[in-house]
Structure formats: C-alpha cells, structure tokens
Design goal:
Elements: H1 14-20, H2 35-50, H3 61-87, H4 100-111, H5 116-124, H6 129-139, H7 146-158, H8 173-201
C-alpha cells in the first residue's frame, strides 16, 4: 500500500521550505514575514486545496454547487491574502502577478463562461466602488484585474449579499465563475511560492 505524501496538499515546494527555510529564515526567500506567518499561509492553502464540498438538505443541486464554489472562494482568497502579506504586496499591486498575456488569456476564458455577464451584473449591485469599477471594466470587455473580480465575489458573499443563484443569472453561473477565479488565484500562489523555494535550492 502506497503511503500518502504528507505534503500533497501544501503549496508546491513546501517539503523543501519546511525542511530548510528555518536556517536562513524566510527573508532569504524574499518573504517579509515570520515563519509563523508563512505557516499560516500554508495552512489556509491546504484547507482550500482539501475542500471538496458541503452538504445541504432540501436545496437543489445547482444551489448546493453554487454555495460550494463560493465557500471555496472564501478559503482560496484567505490563503491568497496571507501570501500577499508574506511577499509584501498590497491588493492594489496584484496586477503585477500576471503578465499582460496571462491576464488577457484569463479574461478571455472568463468571458466565454456561460452566464458570467449576468452573474457580474447581479454581483455589481452588492459591491463598494473600488470593486464596482473593476466589474464595470470587465463588463466593457477591457483589461481589468482578475484578482479584484475574485475579491469582489468573496466580499459580497462573506457579507451575506451574494446568493448561490443570483436573480437574473443562470443557475450554475456562480459556481462556474467562482471556480475559474479560484484556479487563477491558485496558479498565482503556486508560482509565487515555488520560485522562491527554487531560489533557496539554488
């Protein structure tokens, strides 16, 4: 019987970090946080990675799927925020985490998702102006920051304003959009952490 990898659900390169980073300290990797803070990031990353779903009685499968994806967004964004603190980056500067080509490709794929326009139109009414501006730019099909779109979903859902099936949007649009943006954030986290670990190995 194969023994499960204990680091399977941690950020890529975590085995190396966990084994060696205490010697030079996280500052050697360009992380402006303590080891405790980096460990908090890893714990939240792992929670998001291991999350599979929630169970409800008497809800439709579409509503259940929507809530599952929105909770996944809460967990993923919590890890993402902790990584930003560890690397000393403000939310306003997160556009630097994707190249122009990556951003445009992500937005193109996002805009191809069924119901995404109706979803963001429904979401917009529940947002503060900074998030509304990014949603407006997205709806005009101009370059915007995908991280802000994910933050907008997290913000509205965490404050009890966004439902799993917003009125006027297709039933599965919340789940489809939220899962896509979770994948974008996870890709960023994986790359940002791994390239720092690889620098430690070198």
């Amino acid at each position: 019987m194969k023994v499960p990898d204990p680091y399977r659900s941690y950020p890529p390169g975590w085995r190396t970090f966990n084994t060696h980073a205490h010697v030079p300290g996280p500052g050697y990797l360009g992380l402006g946080a303590s080891l405790a803070e980096v460990n908090r990031f890893a714990a939240r990353y792992r929670a998001a990675k291991c999350f599979k779903g929630v169970e409800f009685e008497e809800l439709t499968s579409g509503t259940k799927d929507g809530y599952t994806a929105l909770i996944q967004t809460l967990l993923t964004f919590s890890a993402f925020e902790h990584l930003l603190r560890c690397i000393g980056l403000r939310m306003q500067d997160t556009q630097t985490l994707l190249s122009s080509e990556e951003r445009d490709r992500a937005l193109t794929n996002l805009r191809r998702l069924h119901g995404q326009r109706e979803f963001f139109e429904a979401l917009r009414q529940h947002l503060d102006p900074p998030y509304q501006r990014q949603v407006d730019v997205h709806l005009r099909e101009e370059p915007c920051n995908p991280v802000y779109l994910a933050a907008a979903i997290r913000h509205a859902f965490a404050h009890g304003k966004l439902a799993a099936t917003p009125i006027g949007a297709p039933e599965n649009s919340s789940a489809t959009v939220a899962r896509f943006l979770c994948r974008v954030m996870t890709k960023i986290m994986d790359r940002e952490f791994l390239h720092r670990v690889q620098a430690l190995e070198e």
